[in-house]
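This part of the workshop introduces the protein records we will be handling. The question running through the whole workshop is how a given chain folds. To make this concrete, we reproduce a full record directly below:
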Amino acid sequence: MSADTWLVAGLGNPGPGYARHRHNVGAMVLEELAGRIGAGFSTDHRARATVATGRLRPGGPRVVLAQPAVYMNTSGGPVAALLQYYSITAAQLIVVHDELDIPFDDVRLKRGGSEGGHNGLKDITRAIGTRDYVRVRVGIGRPPGRRDPADHVLSDFAKSEQTVLPMLVDTAADAVEAVVDDGLLAAQQRFHAR
């Protein structure tokens, strides 16, 4: 693959029981992106992931959309295997994930820095040997009251959130497109000003 190929990994847990959980919002964004490029996911057994490839716009960079088919905290192996298979560097990696420390219905972008206690990101960093990759951080907010954060992320979005969720997923997908097309700084200026 050429240097204009991006790997976009959407984090979540496998199986229908987890599909609508807050922790799976990264995978939801990948479904939206696959719909935009008109591609279906197929299983890549080598990498333990489902993968769809295409271009987000005609003549634009090629994207490899990947959903690791493993539990969140072991996402690193599939991401590292896909980077190697497609000859993509960490500089061309975008990880889409849920973020407790960002209010629900907000999207933030960054490259590198701390994983903030996110076990999926920690495993990716460990597996690829660097923190220097782009994160599209989809805000799910902190749990109300004294609710355990683990219970919060492993539960469905509240009814009031479900009406806004499609727009949040759409915005996060737009953010991925902006990073690929315009670069991280331009994308940050656009989405952080919302």
Remarks:
- The CA atoms of residues 72 and 138 lie 15 Å apart.
- The domain at 6-191 is CATH 3.40.50.1470 (Rossmann fold).
- Strands lie at 6-10, 42-44, 49-55, 62-68, 93-99, 107-111, 134-139.
